[in-house]
Amino acid sequence: MASQDTNRRNFLKIGSSALAATAVSWNATSYASIVGANDRVKVGIVGCGDRMKGALIPAFQANAKDMNFEIVAVSDIWNRRREEGAAYIQKMSGNQIAPVRNNDELYARKDIDAVLVATADFQHARHGTEAVNAGRDAYVEKPTAHTMEDARLFRAAVHKTGKIVQVGTQRRSTPSYMKAAEYIKSGKFGDIVMVEMTWNVNQPGRWRRPDVVPLLKEEDTDWKRYLMNRPYEPFNARKYLEFRLFWPYSSGIPDQWLVHQIDTVHWFSGLPHPRSVVANGGIYLWKDGRKNWDTMTAVFDYGPLDDLSKGFQVQYTSRFTNSAGGVKELYYSNGGMLDMSKQTVTPTGGLTAKSAAEMNMKANLLPSFPLVEHAEAMETGLGTHVDAETSANMRNWMECVRSRKTPNASIEAGYSHSIALCMNIAAIQTGEKVTFDDKTQQVMAGGKVHA
């Protein structure tokens, strides 16, 4: 017991200074010695919808003064969002903001050093690719890509240009998740034997925009530019504003929620992608014209790609129809459980002395402790309208723009979650057990490449 208490105290001390540096970040003297660090970084907005205004811009502004960053322009193809976005940022920052009609006009400006991208799910990779090819660093919302073609394109562009890209999987800049990753990788948790994840809501209006859809007219936007590389179809305001309900603009649950949680599996385990995925579900309740499921269960097999005798399952369930269970991420080892919703490690389900003795084995029970002490929690004083996790992720990106170091949520992390996402989508669309070919970097369903 004494050794367990010592391990607990040591773990709670692990990396505290590093975590503080990521979550609270540098002060002016920390980056003053970096070349160009005293120059103001001027940023453009790509897509000024709900996510940008509700999360990214507040997170940006919470760090902008200290890090010497400034938003100077807004690119949005819908004139209403463009003008309202510019006015919103101008009111928040006090700076004059230039509204521009599209990204071509944005990148023609010489005063744009970096961009924030929060457009429709299917556009992220292409818009990220545009940004780095135009010589700009970028903070790009998740999912990184829901087709492998787009994922490969974006990753290759980032590697070729050397630009700094942060993916919007903000758990990677969150102290409790960082501590969990360190704990599992230390070996103290033991091998992962199972992961259970849920994301449940009871919200018929989730991802719906009934009050906004009538306001969007085709003549006020650029429908062909919106479609990018997707097949042409006539203008549809719902598919523009409620894109999360319609493939090929989003897969819904996997695009929006799965990627956040499955990203932690890759991070904690060190594995690049699932070995296989199966999925089932449907539109069981909300018959509102949507094409993406309102309920899904998927099972992922993870483990060494060259040793099928080792591994674990991830059971992922999500529904819009009943909120019981909420959002959970539960990691199990033979010794107990790591609960990311409660931010605790406990001996729950671990091997007891009685059961162990039956096989001449020893008990294997983890000590109970919080992942993050109260004093280390993300109480940043940012205000009620700023998401602390997104703010920490934004701050880490700003630091890396200056230092040229790899961000916490790198393009490789985004590529890995894209593989899992594309495999999940293939399982939904084909009903097959889906695998991944590492040589070709292709998703395989029923022995065939799934585009």
Automatic annotation (TrEMBL):
InterPro entries: Gfo/Idh/MocA-like_OxRdtase_N, Gfo/Idh/MocA_oxidrdct_glycsds, NAD(P)-bd_dom_sf, TAT_signal. This is Oxidoreductase. Residues 41-168 form the Gfo/Idh/MocA-like oxidoreductase N-terminal domain. One of its GO terms (molecular function) is nucleotide binding.
